[in-house]
Amino acid sequence: MPSLSIFDCAVTGRAYEHENTDGKEAPLPPGWVEVTLRTRSPNPDRQAILQTMEMITNGTLSQWPPEARNDATQRMLLARQVSAQFAAALAAAPEFLEHVSTGYISLEEQEGEDAVRKIADIAGLSLEVLQDGERDDEGEEDNGAPEPAPEPATKPAPKA
User: Which residues on neighbouring strands pair with residue 8, listed in sequence order?
Assistant: First the structure.
């Protein structure tokens, strides 16, 4: 059964429709770019489990007499006991979360800088591109020339 694949340009909103008659995924249209971003971040659920484990361990240690708190064997046994209590929860909570985002851009009608800016927008990135005559952070004009090397703090002694 034929299906319809639609590619929407993230810059212009232009759509490209392709009818799939062979049941396969539609190929990327000519002149288009597919941008896939994969981000990885710490899992907040896992972080909460680890904090809870630490709070339980520290709470238990605070109730122990001082000589028992300093006993490395007792501390290790307590840490293993708490780890065992939370083993199932830790196993179910991956260390990192991954997010994949895909966007399409038609470069047929785009200028290079517009396409780059839109890709940065899709990625959630801030992109600062200086144009000729714009000022940089220090208030000096950026003319594309390299900055001169700073003067040394002390001048070398003359050779004898």
Answer: 15
Structure tokens at 61: 């240690």
Please name the residues in contact with 141: beta carbons below 8 A apart, sequence gap of 6 or more: 133, 134, 135
Q: Are 3 and 20 in contact (CB under 8 A)?
A: yes
pLDDT digit string (tens) for 35-61? 788 889 999 999 999 999 999 999 999
Question: Are 16 and 106 a contacting pair, CB within 8 Å?
Answer: yes
Three-class SS string for the chain? Answer: CCEEEEEEECCCCCEEEEEECCCCCCCCCCCEEEEEEEEEEECHHHHHHHHHHHHHHHHHHHHCCHHHHCCHHHHHHHHHHHHHHCHHHHHHCCCEEEEEEEEEEECCCCCHHHHHHHHHHHHCCCCCCCCCCCECCCCCECCCCCCCCCCCCCCCCCCC
